[in-house]
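Sample entry (365 residues):
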Amino acid sequence: MHSSIQTEIDASYLYGVLAAKEEDTDVAEIFRQMSEIEKSHALAFMAKYNIPSAPFPPPSGRAKTLEFIGKIMGYDYILGVLMDTEKSLSNTILNTRKKISPNSSSVSDTAHVTILKNILDNQTKVSGSNLARFEKRHRSVGGNALRAAVLGGNDGLVSNFSLVMGIAGATSGNDEVLLAGMAGLMAGALSMALGEWISVKSSQELYENQMNLEQEELEVNPAGEEKEIALIYMSKGIPETQARQMASEIMQDTSKAHALLVKEELGINSEELKGSAMEAAITSFLLFAVGAIIPVFPFFFLSGFNAVILSTVVSAIGLFVIGSAITLFTGKSIWYSGMRQVLFGLAAAAVTYGIGSLIGVQVAG
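Predicted structure, serialized as tokens:
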């Protein structure tokens, strides 16, 4: 089946899963509408390519895997993956629509987030608190923890696999390979952890500084800040008189005014400030270490060429698994993505092994 059709079928299925699991009836209705939109896209593609639409095709293994992961990590994760695919989906819709009718356009040509916002705008039963909850959840899954896990494991595996092969090519001793492999694991994992800690901590400090400055502006120039709040409301389409009235009311509570300005003017999500830099550092350390240990552990039991062969085999398996996991975000073929990852990883290891062998020969000579 054409990949564009399967992408739409999967999106429809996954939004249906979200609708079935959503406790809030209004938000569940939003997900059901999204499922129907994606199904309509799939049917349009099937008509274009003269593919029978009855019975409606089942979801792919990728979609089923995402549903399974959602059961473990929470169904908000599925929404994050769906949002990550919005660009490819909207581009597919646009390209197909241009081929069918170059001058036609539709609100559904836009990205998924825009579609969702349009549905929310037209869904009068959705309260402000539910809308805020939905937007907060969308932001919270944007970072995609599984993506970080996959990339962290990939960094550890590829870098340490290349290092181990380089040392194995340069020396004939098993101890040297183990020492280098474990040193590479620790050095890389510590570097990743420190980098993540600095990143999270510096972002928090920057945001806190901006929020403190905004608080000072509220205290020293409340009239100016009230005008800013009114302009924010006006930019959202609220009439000027009503916007000024709303701004005056919210200024009666400095904390609410500050929260509004932080969100609307600075674009800061206060929830992000609650993240632990140490937790992020430890997670990065562990993710890198898991990938980095794979090419090293055969050398604990074997030596020489046998250890090199087994290390290559298990590393290739690890690379294929990582490449397959990446398809959860890209929607590409598992075999294509998995084998591509294996080829790149083996090529890097082969280069370092070759360089190590040349260096070893020169040192020995």
